[in-house]
TrEMBL record:
Pfam assignment, any one: BPD_transp_1
GO (cellular component) term, any one: plasma membrane
Main location: membrane
Region of interest (Disordered), ranges: 148-167
GO biological process: transmembrane transport
UniProt keyword annotations, A-Z: Cell membrane, Membrane, Transmembrane, Transmembrane helix, Transport
Coiled-coil positions: none
UniProt record similarity statement: Belongs to the binding-protein-dependent transport system permease family.
Gene3D superfamilies: MetI-like (1.10.3720.10)
Protein name per the record: ABC transporter permease subunit
Statement: the UniProt record of this protein carries the keyword DNA damage: no
PANTHER family found in the cross-reference section: BLL4140 PROTEIN, DIACETYLCHITOBIOSE UPTAKE SYSTEM PERMEASE PROTEIN DASB
Membrane topology annotation: Multi-pass membrane protein
């Protein structure tokens, strides 16, 4: 039987006729766009004036594009590394898990949805409001478990009242207090939902030798109450720390009871009363996931969530071909599981890990959807990447398709070496 090469040499027109449709498609969808992009990158925004390499110079001098380039470097280093490492861990651990198939299905499931859908999901996960965003709901729950939050974060002194706001956020009663004379510390601006369950405020008693007082919400619905006076319907602010301060030193402190009253010993006589700022600090509201400082790591985390399953499946397939005799021999020789993993499993999986890592690198260089959907307009410039910048430069405000084409060519130059490395690796594997 004649070999395939002999047939091609004898009838080259047959091979050409079969290849022609594919070559036409390749030329129309790949070769022509690449050639046109290279040509367009050498002209200005209008496409009429030849500017040479000025558009490529813009890539390295424009602050927005340089930010995108820096973020791309972060993506290339972090995302493939983390996704490959997690895929390796999942692949190894699932060999010892009873419900391995179910676990692999759950980890791989994010690959079934599009980048757009994943972006919408994580845009909601990263919502700043803990009542809507899962990430901050978890963060605030953990924080509040180990750190107490203030009871009355919205309370403020009544305007024109006896309390003044200090630079450190505390509230100070300007007039020194006298033992036996009750001190009134009215506050306002506490929302009604926070007051649900609060007791009615009680007037302080004038105990001789002691400093007494009341901290309460000085507001009556309908405006029937009098200012700086404890009216019958007004509610107490319990759990507020009250300090007696003399010459900048705290000489006594106490906490208001359920009815808002407090009692300080005789040492507080002649001192000023202060409500420390800790009573009124705003509650912990979680992390600003989509703020300028954390937005890129947050989006990378969403990418890893999607692609760790892809890495796991490929690495698990490679792991299935690892000779079990080699692993068992190492264990018989006294190697523990960590040594078996580090010295045998990982080296034998090196070709597969390389393919997964390089594939993810190529994928990361083209990342666009997640950044465009997840990053809000306020921090999109901080999360920018080259593929997104290509779109913004070509079709956004003040579009310049010359610069956009230059970015496209630059991305191609970044992808080509990675593709060559991957092809050479695959060729070596096929020759074995």
């Amino acid at each position: 039987m004649a070999s395939g090469k002999a047939v091609i040499r004898a009838r080259p027109w047959v091979a050409a006729s079969f290849l022609l449709p594919a070559l036409l498609l390749l030329g129309a969808l790949v070769v022509y766009p690449i050639g046109y992009s290279i040509q367009r990158s050498l002209f200005d925004a209008s496409g009429d004036s030849f500017v040479g390499l000025d558009n490529f110079k813009e890539i390295f001098t424009n602050d927005g594009i340089r930010t995108a380039l820096k973020n791309n470097l972060i993506w290339i280093v972090v995302a493939p590394t983390v996704a490959t490492a997690l895929g390796l861990i999942f692949a190894v651990l699932t060999e010892r898990v009873r419900w391995a198939t179910v676990f692999k299905l759950v980890v791989f499931m994010p690959m079934a949805i599009s980048m757009l859908a994943a972006g919408i999901i994580f845009r909601m996960v990263y919502e700043q409001n803990p009542d809507r965003g899962l990430a901050n709901a978890l963060a605030t729950t953990v924080h509040d478990t180990f750190a107490e939050s203030s009871s009355w974060p919205d309370a403020q002194p009544r305007p024109g009242g006896p309390l003044t706001v200090e630079e450190d956020g505390s509230y100070l009663l300007t007039e020194p207090v006298t033992a036996g004379t009750p001190a009134l510390l009215p506050l306002v601006a506490v929302p009604q939902p926070e007051l649900s369950g609060a007791d009615l405020a009680a007037a302080p008693g004038g105990e001789p030798g002691e400093v007494t007082g009341t901290v309460w919400m000085d507001f009556t619905r309908g405006g029937a109450g009098a200012e700086n006076t404890i009216d019958p319907e007004e509610l107490a602010l319990s759990g507020i720390t009250v300090e007696a301060v003399r010459d900048g030193q705290v000489v006594a402190d106490t906490t208001t009871g359920d009815d808002g009253t407090f009692t300080l010993p005789a040492e507080a006589d002649g001192a000023q009363l202060r409500l420390p700022s800790d009573n009124f600090t705003a509650p912990y509201n979680g992390i600003e996931w989509l703020g300028p400082n954390v937005v890129t790591p947050a989006i990378i985390a969403s990418y890893v969530w999607m692609w760790a399953g892809f890495a796991m499946v490929l690495i698990a397939a490679g792991l299935a071909s690892v000779p079990r005799e080699t692993l068992e021999a190492a264990r018989v020789d006294g190697a523990n599981e960590w040594h078996v993993f580090r010295r045998i499993t990982v080296p034998l999986l090196a070709p597969v890990l390389g393919v997964v890592f390089v594939t993810l690198m190529i994928n990361v260089l083209k990342i666009f959807d997640l950044v465009y959907v997840i990053a809000p307009s306020s921090s999109q410039a901080d999360a920018n990447v080259l593929a997104l910048q290509l779109y913004l430069s070509s079709f956004g405000t003040g579009a310049d398709q010359g610069v956009g084409s230059a970015i496209a060519v630059f991305l191609l130059l970044l992808v080509v070496p990675v593709m060559i490395i991957n092809l050479r690796r695959l060729r070596r594997e096929n020759q074995r």
